[in-house]
Amino acid sequence: MKKIVMMLAAFMTMNLSACSQGNKKESKEMTKVLVAYFSATGTTKGVAKQLAEVTGGKLHEIKPAQPYTDADLNWRDKQSRSSVEMKDKTSRPAITDKFKNMKDYDVIYVGFPIWWYTCPTIINTFMEAYAFKGKTVIPFATSGGSDIKKACEDLKAAYPDVNWKEGKLLNRATKKDIEAWVKTLTNDLSNMSTIYDYKALSNKGKEVNFADYKGKVLLVVNTASKCGFTPQYDGLEALYLKYKDQGLVIIGFPCDQFGHQEPGTNEEIEEFCRLNHGVTFPLMSKIEVNGENAHPIYKWLESQAGFAGFAPEHKLSKLMDEMLSKADPDYASKPDIKWNFTKFLINREGKVVGRFEPTSEPSDLEKPIEEQL
Length: 373
Ligand SMILES: Cc1cc2nc3c(=O)[nH]c(=O)nc-3n(C[C@H](O)[C@H](O)[C@H](O)COP(=O)(O)O)c2cc1C
What we know:
The chain is an alpha/beta fold. It folds into two domains: 2-28 and 197-372, Glutaredoxin (3-Layer(aba) Sandwich); 33-190, Rossmann fold. It contains eleven helices and 14 strands. Strands 1, 2, 5, 6, 7 and 8 form a six-stranded parallel sheet that branches. It has a four-stranded mixed sheet with strand order 12-11-13-14, with helices on one face. Strands 3-4 form a two-stranded antiparallel sheet. Helix 2 (43-55) packs across helix 6 (175-190). The longest helix has 16 residues, at 175-190. The radius of gyration is 26 Å and the shape is elongated. Flavin mononucleotide (FMN) binds at residues 39-45, 73, 75, 82, 113-117, 142-146.
């Protein structure tokens, strides 16, 4: 009882704002974006460049082996090259500069001018030159006034294995317009990402690629050594020992953002966990989980599963609710991490399947873990 009262006092005086002790060397989100475009007269090229800037994607020009001359582009002339190509659905104008690393890209924006209400057949050449099956492809276009609808329908019908996202006409689009469009796509795109897209630094500062955990069930926990919930290390280690042979891996991310309860160095944290709680599951370097400097893996985790609610029967739930409401009456509607020992359960496909707040004891997680194993 005395301990709880002391904790209450400590919680109440805690500074809920983020401390900025994050490790700035952490790697960035790994979803790779390509902005590929064909442009005969430079208009689509202009928006493609802006799109690459906004998305941070790599820009790639789809270059015709034989460039289009003005005469080729004369749509009034039924015999011009473009007219002939657009009339022949099987025409596949050759392209130069094959893009070598397409397999590394998950999201591909494909840009083109609208020709005869649809996309130029050189886009078919492009689509057939690479394995886009299962990749996310997002069309964009410029035109003299026609919309992009028919082009999108034609592409979807021709390449049904591709994960098509709704295309966008970017006539006279400003950078702001493009930013707004990309923002609407971001949520959608984050839904298709997995934990395997992320990297972090181990407790010893070595890069850990989460793709190496493919096929495992993961429990990702933000930890702290001087918190009322710190004894959960024992329960977490017990879970790890019980289920590790069946494929469970627990990964601890120490974080000092909640009440300054993880002040130590990575070395000190590791020693504390090993000596006091016999921790053998992997610990990462200390990171931030909330705010501007939040580690990308946490930005992603929070985008996948919002606040799960405190367990009603837990003795600290009421206290947590009071403390957090005081700082932000609307806290429950926000997905950020509320306190140390928030747990995310990841299935064998790298997707978040559960979020458990600090008031869920590790032993409460046995059933959900077993369901994934
Ligand atoms: C052969 C040809 C056909 C075109 N067909 C259409 C069309 O059906 N609808 C339209 O709005 N604009 C059409 N346009 C205009 C282009 O879509 C528009 O000028 C576009 O922005 C050019 O992009 P670019 O500079 O990247 O090549 C056509 C242009 C050409 C050359």
